[in-house]
Amino acid sequence: MGGFVNAQFYSPMGLRGDSLVTLFFFLRFFITNNSSLRSCIRSFGVLVLLSTSITVAASSQVLFHESFHQTPDSITWAGTLDFFSVYEDSDRSGLQLNAPAGASSAQIVTRRAFNPVVWEWELRQDFVSSDNNRSFIFLNASDYEPESPKTGIVLQAGESGSHKPFRLLYLNKDSSVLPLIETKLMVEDGPFYRFRVVRCPADSLHLMIGTETDPTPIHRGSVSIEKLAPISPGHFGLRSDFTSSRNRHFTYGPIQLLSDIPIPEIADVSIQTNNPDQEPKHLFLTLTFTYPIAKDQLQLMLQKGTTEWQPVTMLCPHPQKCTFVFEEELETGRYNLQIQPFCSTLNSCSSDQNLILTLTENAKPGDIIINELLYRSDGLSHVRFVELWNVSDKIIDLNVLRFGR
């Protein structure tokens, strides 16, 4: 499927025995906002999220949102606006550096000042950062004038001519006054990074960073800022410093500023079993959350019909990840995963959540046949499909199947 932009499935999760499924391929871009669901589908293995029924509280108030589907306008932004152009692919849109020859710095800053609790944005740099090629993301810049040095909290990517991690700093007129958080995540060449900074309580900052392979922003560090002046409303801004060879190598993704902390949600579900020859059999259910979780409140169970399974233990090696261990060896089929309300460590809470999961098997030769194939359709040149027929009595996971030559 590598040659197709996007694949949409009638039945993308599990193919039941003696059933047909048609895979339609559209050679056009489809942009979906449900990145959490995409990450679930990609990582399940033997257990697949079939559908969800989640009741959540009202979403946080969005103070500012910019998706960069069009070039920045001068009413919202100040700076070198004509140094950037729109970037789009099948997964995301963004703002790409496209400066004229001879330029060495570019920036855009919101004309309006904001006082958010949550800052979120994306960034990609197609090179290893250095002192001459780096990015600054201003959370609360003191002003929006392009030429004036900025004071405020900033995330810096790249410095001092060597491979360095992302850093959260406090700047005073563009000079570093106080390092706040220095992560161990190195700035790599190529991937999109997703950032989240949370202010909670008022004198603490929490930094979370996700990558393309693990898109959920994961907790990277916290810092008390009570020694600084209280965080004042400020302007959100993006700045690139670059040499001529690195023009067009910076891309900034969607930006969102929130007035309060969203409720925690489940961003990813994965399942593992122990070695088939190992006794007793265990099932390991791992949940990844969008925010650090108060672990003592986590309670869940699996249910199929009138039968219920409770985990025998819970292991939480990370503030946003917990693994639940079940002693029983479960059969293939559909299960309800019922999760009691849980809260983040930042004092926002969910309601009951119910996930419908399907435990599947891997296909063996002869289990699935290609029943029909449409390669080219007159009048619908962008449509292709393959129809699969499961001739076995198994529930088969389609996520692990690939077309080959």
Structure characterization notes:
- The protein has one helix at residues 35-43; strands spanning 6-9, 14-15, 19-26, 47-54, 62-66, 77-79, 84-88, 93-97, 105-110, 118-125, 134-141, 152-157, 165-172, 175-186, 192-199, 204-211, 218-224, 235-241, 250-252, 255-258, 266-273, 283-289, 300-304, 307-309, 313-318, 321-326, 333-339, 353-359, 368-374, 383-390, 396-397.
- With 405 residues, the protein is mainly β.
- Strands 5, 7, 8, 10, 15, 16, 17, 19 and 20 form a nine-stranded antiparallel sheet that branches.
- The longest helix has 9 residues, at 35-43.
Low-pLDDT stretches: 1-14, 25-58
Total count of helical runs of at least 4 residues: 1
In total, the number of strands is: 31
The separation of the N and C termini measures 11 Å
Class inferred from helices and paired strands: mainly beta
Task: Summarize the amount of helix as a percent range.
Answer: under 10%
* Largest β sheet strand count, sense and barrel closure: 9 strands, antiparallel
Question: For the residues shown, what is the average pLDDT?
Answer: 79
Categorize the overall geometry: globular
For the CA atoms, what is the radius of gyration?
24 Å
